[in-house]
Amino acid sequence: MGLGNVPRDAFFNPDGSGADSLRDVVDKVLESLMVVVRERAGQSPLPRSVESHYEAFPQEGHGYDDVFARLSGVLQDSLYPAHPGYIGHMDSIPTLMSVIGDFVAAFLNNNLLSQEMSPALSMMETDVLRQFGQKFGLGENSGGVMTSGGTLANLQALALARNRAFSVRDEGLARLGKRPVLFASEVAHTSLQKAAMLLGLGSSAVVPVRADANSRMRPDDLEEKIRNAKACGEAPFAVVATAGTTVTGNIDPLREIGALAKQYGLWFHVDAAYGGGLIFSPTQRFRLQGIEQADSVTFNPQKWMYIAKTCAMVLFKDTDLLLSDFRVAAPYMSDSDFVNLGEISVQGTRHADILKLWLSLCHIGLVGYQQLVDHSYATTAFFVDQIRARSYLVLAGEPETNLCCFRGEPSFLPQDAWDEWNVELQRHLSQRGQTFLSCPGYRGGRWLRAVLLNPFTTTEVIDGVFRAMDEFYQASAAARG
Ligand SMILES: Cc1ncc(COP(=O)(O)O)c(C=O)c1O
Question: If you average pLDDT over every residue of the chain, what do you get?
Fold first, then answer.
């Protein structure tokens, strides 16, 4: 069978001919994207409606124009997180260099499984992550691997902790007489339960530790839970502290928790998927004090470093442990002194997420990142002032990062109607206020959550959000008579 039905431009020509038509295609895609940018600017970050465009695969392929017409439909129906009013989740506008980095990574199509398949990029990942290890204060022998999201980073950290504690890398858990358990705050991310499930411990092996009024893990309760577990014949092996909790952005007392982990001989993991961005700010970095004691750290540059998804890493204080307690060699790769990254990470074939991170760091620089972090603190302070100025709004606790969790408790309604009122307020803001706030369940109720990442979310934008909230409040008060 010939190739008569494969379009001549199904691939770019590796001999370099046809470069002009490649430029035309890129121009067309860019134009479609710019239409979205221009149209969405004055509208909601949410798509108006989402329709299904996904017909059966065609027998014969379509030309560019047809394909791009379909792509436009997808763009119209997609969320637009770059919008200054999109402040509901831990994702925001991506750096331009990370968009370019992903484009180039796809073009190069190197595989970060092994050095022979990605000579420059494998070394880049090792070098860049060594620098991150040092920025977190983990020391000279620190480093790690990129992972596709924080969930996998937490999984890998806990897999190494478990293997190390019980020497189960090769023989598995069957011969263990005691049940391994780990400790994390009751508001820690659910990826820890997933990790425990996948590690054969069962999701209930994550023992919840009580959090204080500001969602920070209580060291006294941690100690009690560790002692109880030991007394019950369980085998504690790790403590996970969170730096930047998912709903409120608070930071567990890392120093005290690290000291307890050491006292009881437990692995100390810090899930800094969100709060890790504080390493760039000399004025805010103090909030991470104690992270340098960690055996492992999760950090997601896809959040506070604005790198296009996915971009996450797991770092280890002692990278030798990755070799002794995690590595599974890939004998189908040629021998070299360089440790193939796919042998020391959960994934085999790996995307070159490192490229967009490195390009963004080269372009924005450490001082640029410092300013982005500090600027978002100023924006958050302004946002919090607006909440405190309104008697119908209450904060879930004291914000420590750029997350602000709050809700309406209008006195003209009974308490059991507040949840529904907040859900309706969120809907109103999305539909009328060109704003998206998320509406998480927290402490048994519905709350509103703002994540003030986007540098385009100015004080004018925030004023508009609160004007829309006040309108809703006044209208619902009036409707009650
Ligand atoms: C604190 C924390 N840890 C881990 C994760 C999981 O990261 P991912 O969604 O990239 O897997 C999240 C996600 O928001 C998070 O907030």
Answer: 96
